[in-house]
Design goal:
With 257 residues, this protein is an alpha/beta fold. The chain is 42% helix and 15% strand. It binds phosphoenolpyruvate (PEP). Phosphoenolpyruvate (PEP) binds next to strand 8.
Length: 257
């Protein structure tokens, strides 16, 4: 059975108190769902809250592994005089499992480019965590038919220094920028086409065939089952619909259906 993934990306939402309430609502529901997953390793659930929430949620989770923590970002250097930044090692030291790298909001607003993202991936791997690499075309690229070229460039220029063994540790999230937070979900054909394309790049260029590829972009409890049913969609990276515990549980149920 292939492992399925669901990640809630909370972006810059929730106070620490609201984050704790969410987890207190979610955890009992996860206990109830657990028997539905064939085995624990078949379902990997993650929350990517703000840096500030991570220690509070880590304390709440203790030893339980029903859901794991991701960070939304980390710095591209291992350490140094970078006021206001957070290193990969700091995140690993409080039990964070992985880091989102290359989310379109960071590419757009923080102007993070391919070489910078390549460095971040290295830092995450050095710290013993898993990189969750986001890629996806802009609306302009989609309209002009350059969507594949754009995604290919994102993958090639940020993964260029990785060995096949390192590539195998990645999770890829295909997130068309025009679908993120817009309510305009990609069609099943578009999703299948791009997942097949990304799979081809990973196997042709790196000889790696088993990297999970998730879809992200306006995925919600109404459309999740259809999206997760597409060929080679290993799960979802969820923004808006991950902010309420009940909605998030509905998405998990869609993944397990
Ligand atoms: C995201 O933040 O990666 C995302 C997919 O957001 P939304 O689900 O709100 O489109």
């Amino acid at each position: 059975m292939k492992k399925k993934y669901l990640i809630g990306n909370w972006k810059m939402y929730k106070t620490v108190q609201e984050a704790v309430v969410f987890m207190q609502q979610l955890l009992p529901q996860l206990e109830a769902i657990r028997p539905l997953a064939i085995c624990d390793t078949a379902l990997a659930l993650y929350i990517a809250p703000s840096f500030l929430h991570l220690p509070a949620i880590a304390a709440l989770l203790g030893d339980q592994k029903s859901i794991q923590l991701l960070a939304q970002n980390c710095h591209h250097e291992a350490e140094g005089a970078f006021t206001g930044e957070v290193s990969a090692a700091m995140l690993a030291s409080i039990g964070v499992s992985g880091v989102l790298i290359g989310h379109s909001e960071r590419r757009n607003y923080q102007k993070e480019d391919h070489p910078l993202l390549a460095k971040k991936i290295k830092r995450v791997l050095e710290a013993g965590m898993q990189p969750f690499f986001c890629c996806g075309e802009s609306l302009a690229a989609r309209r002009s038919g350059n969507h594949k070229a754009m995604v290919q460039q994102q993958l090639q220029e940020s993964l260029v220094d990785l060995t096949p063994k390192e590539i195998e540790t990645l999770v890829i999230a295909y997130e068309p920028v025009w679908a993120i937070g817009t309510g305009q979900v990609a069609t099943m054909e578009e999703i299948t086409e791009m997942h097949t394309f990304i799979r081809g790049i990973l196997s042709n260029h790196y000889g790696v065939g088993n990297v999970p590829i998730l879809y992200g972009g306006s995925c919600n409890p109404q459309n999740a089952a259809a999206i997760f049913g597409c060929a080679d969609v290993a799960g979802g990276l969820i923004g808006g619909a991950s902010l309420e515990a009940d909605q998030f549980v509905k998405m998990i149920m869609a993944l397990l259906a």
